[in-house]
Amino acid sequence: MEQTPLLRIRELTRHFAVGGRVVKAVDGISFDVRRGETLALVGESGCGKTTTGRLLVRLAEPDGGSIAFDGTEITAAKADTLRAYRRRMQLIFQDPGSSFNPRMTVGALVSEPMHLAGLKRAEQAARVAELLPLVGLSADYAARYPHEFSGGQRQRIGIARALALRPDFIVCDEPVSALDVSVQAQVVNLLTGLQHQFGLTYLFISHDLRVVRHVAARVAVMYLGRIVELASKQDLYRSPRHPYTRALLSAVPSHRPGMTRRRMDAIGEIASADAVPSGCRFHTRCVHAQARCREEDPALRELAPGHVAACHLAESLPS
Ligand SMILES: Nc1ncnc2c1ncn2[C@@H]1O[C@H](COP(=O)(O)OP(=O)(O)OP(=O)(O)O)[C@@H](O)[C@H]1O
Ligand code: SF4
Ligand SMILES: [Mg+2]
């Protein structure tokens, strides 16, 4: 029998009212995050990745749907139940530097979650001394200030802070996007190493399919508030079934000399989340769109074991 997933998300929705319009940031998404895996969430800017991440760690309130964490429904949990679960779920941001209080030392920044959780000062200090070397920083850095460090080092501080309360699940929201390419690999390797060491589960948000290829076990592709395809990394990169996934992959520059880009399967810019197209929300950009696509909203269907996609024509598209 399959283990209970660490997270079980069903029909999760989050809309924002902005100046009389409704922005459908997250519009009914369902998926599981398995224990110990890295599930990548990819898609263009504005498709709802960050909102999804914030909903999962309960930093944002859903309008509808459910989240079960470790078998317990936490969507409507009372404050004290939620507090216990919050410790187990953390978030790493794209640019930790901008969210750090510049007047706090590295030690104080890493201690803050422990302070808020009511740990004693001595315990906090001991844990900081343990955490800094774990993320590849000297324990002496605790007395220094974040501005003294490089972007990569600041991200290590952000990771130490996220680990402080020994979480099970971490949402990594574009954790390396602001870093130089040479530093990206180091931080990705650190995250992977920590995952193995502590059995962590990651939701890894990224718009960069090259980075995702290094870290993810499975990949979910998001378009205008919906998951349009989800599969193992191998299946997704080898045989993408949704035209949008194909378009994203065709836009990844190839490093092999002489390789030309594959034909684009999408045209134009992402539609706006406050004016989601009828039927298949991708039809305004899809080169395969037919009359049916403008009217019928395709459901996410299983096309092969563990491989789901939301496209009416998924079976008949050229491979
Ligand atoms: N607090 C908010 N109030 C109003 N609209 C919001 C809010 N947060 C997000 N949105 C809107 O919801 C949609 C999804 O935003 P979100 O930040 O989740 O996208 P994203 O995929 O993370 O984008 P990016 O790749 O640029 O980080 C966007 O249209 C955004 O403008
Ligand atoms: S349902 Fe139609 S418009 Fe949507 S992705 Fe498939 S072919 Fe394109
Ligand atoms: Mg984002």
Give a structural overview.
The protein has 319 residues and is an alpha/beta fold. The strands form 2 sheets. It has an 8-stranded mixed sheet, sandwiched between helices. Strands 2-1-4-5 form a 4-stranded antiparallel sheet, covered by helices on one side. Helix 4 (106-116) crosses helix 5 (121-134). The model is unreliable at 257-263 (pLDDT under 50). The chain folds into 2 domains: 1-88 and 168-174 and 184-252, P-loop containing nucleotide triphosphate hydrolases (Rossmann fold, 3-Layer(aba) Sandwich); 96-166, no CATH class. It is 32% helix and 23% strand. The structure holds adenosine-5'-triphosphate, iron/sulfur cluster and magnesium ion. Magnesium ion binds next to helix 1. Magnesium ion (MG) binds at residues 49-50.
Structural features:
Rossmann fold; binds iron/sulfur cluster; 8-stranded mixed sheet; binds adenosine-5'-triphosphate; 11 helices; alpha/beta; 2 domains; 4-stranded antiparallel sheet; 319 residues
In DSSP terms, counting alpha (H) and pi (I) runs of 4 or more, how many helices?
A: 11
Which sequence of strands runs across the widest sheet? 6-7-8-3-9-10-12-11
| The CATH architecture of the largest domain | 3-Layer(aba) Sandwich
The CATH top-level class label of the largest domain: Alpha Beta
Beta-strand content: 15-25%
Q: Calculate the terminal CA-CA distance, rounded to whole Å.
A: 33 Å
CATH topology of the largest domain: Rossmann fold
Low-confidence segments, ≥5 residues, pLDDT <50? 257-263
Bound molecules: adenosine-5'-triphosphate, iron/sulfur cluster, magnesium ion
- The rough form would be described as globular
Q: Would you tell me the overall average pLDDT?
A: 92
CATH superfamily of the largest domain: P-loop containing nucleotide triphosphate hydrolases
